[in-house]
Amino acid sequence: MDLRARLLKRLQASEVARILVKQAQARIDSRGADVGGYAALWADTAKVTIGKGKKKRTIDHYRKGGVPLKDTGNLYRSLTAKTTATGNGILLTLQGSIIAAFHQHGFKTSGPNFIPFTRGAVRRDPKAMKRGEYAIARKGVTVPARPIFAMPPAARQEVARAIARALGAR
Predict the structure, then answer these.
(1) How far apart, in Å, are the Cα atoms of 152 and each of 36, 57, 72, 112, 147?
(2) Tens-place pLDDT, residues 112-155
(3) Domain count within the chain
(4) Is residue 161 part of a domain?
(5) Could you tell me the residue range of the domain that residue 100 belongs to?
(6) Dihedral Cα 87, 90, 96, 98, nearest 10 deg
(7) Is residue 40 a part of any domain in this protein?
(8) Is residue 116 part of a domain?
């Protein structure tokens, strides 16, 4: 087995991939603190008026105080990493669901978009729908970038230390 193959085998068995995933998950948990912070959820300030007549009332959005990118946990759980040999190097790749790619750079939809205000509306509960616990963004929505895959200096140092340990450096 040549040196490159031995190094790749050691790196694949190392903690490097786990560190990349852990860093991305910590970035989501901290709302992107290590990359300048994520834009606040619009739901944090949204007040929604639902109902009619005497039953009319104002409620907070169900995601108020929520953590961006963690609503269902699907993106969070989809994160994986792998180590691959390239021409004369090693490629470390962090992967996630397709929604992660959209959030990495931000996106805009052309609409219409269904926006639920309550958990009932998320489930499309007939009562919630009748009470108008949702909105339709006819012209679409703009979602700000929320980098998940990033390598600020502290993250690079942690990965470099793990690589050094995997290769037997002290």
Answers:
(1) 10, 45, 27, 36, 11
(2) 999 888 889 889 999 988 888 888 889 999 989 999 988 899 99
(3) 1
(4) yes
(5) 3-31+67-105+147-166
(6) -20
(7) no
(8) no
